[in-house]
Amino acid sequence: MVAREVAGMVLMALAGCSVATLVILESVVKGLHLPYFALMGTANLVAGISLSVALGCRGELSKLSLHQLKWVWVRGIFGCSTYVLMLLAVVVGAPLGASSALQSINVVVAALLGRVFLGEPLCGLHIAALGCSFTGAVLVT
User: Fold this and answer.
1) For 28, which of 34, 105, 115, 128 is 20 to 30 Å away at the CA?
2) What's the pLDDT at 50?
3) What count of other Cβ atoms lies within 10 Å of the Cβ of residue 39?
4) How far is residue 73's CA from residue 90's CA, in Å, rounded to a whole number?
């Protein structure tokens, strides 16, 4: 069980690094005069179709109820929207550092929404950590 949790944490760290790298690559590809959004759109489409086919072949998609499938789609739409808005912010001139720093606000919002909708507890240490995240994001921007 612990090895699985460690693997999950490592994968989440890699996902965070990947998002930051993709935002930085937007500026690099733009400097090379390559069609960044066409390249990213095609890559994401191929990855999404491949993942869907792999899950379908394993029978994983059939295990989801209609209610669960709805939430998978909603999560996907909001995740994609977040990424698109972050890229657009960089395209229109937001500094890379500010864009990356504002991603740390996700922790604050997730904790607060977890408290409001799921009733998750917030102790003093959590509130202090949220305050530090928020203050850091404000100071960097």
Assistant:
1) 105
2) 93
3) 12
4) 26
The one-letter amino acid at 52? S
pTM greater than 0.85: no
* pLDDT attached to residue 1: 60
Taking only the tens place, the pLDDT of each residue in 121-141 is 888 887 888 788 778 777 776
3-state secondary structure of 8: helix
In 3D space, the residue among 99, 110, 112, 107 whose CA is nearest the CA of residue 140 turns out to be: 99
Whole-angstrom distance, CA of residue 113 vs CA of residue 90 = 27
Could you give the C-alpha distances from 113 to 15, 83, 107, 116, in angstroms and in order?
22, 20, 10, 5
Distance in angstroms (rounded) separating the CA atoms of residues 92 and 100: 15
What separation, in Å, do the N-terminal and C-terminal C-alpha atoms of the chain show? 39
Exposed, middle or buried by CB within 10 Å (0-12, 13-18, 19+), for 32? exposed
Place of tokens 């069980």: 1
**What's the Cα-to-Cα distance from 112 to each of 26, 119, 129, rounded to whole Å?**
31, 10, 12
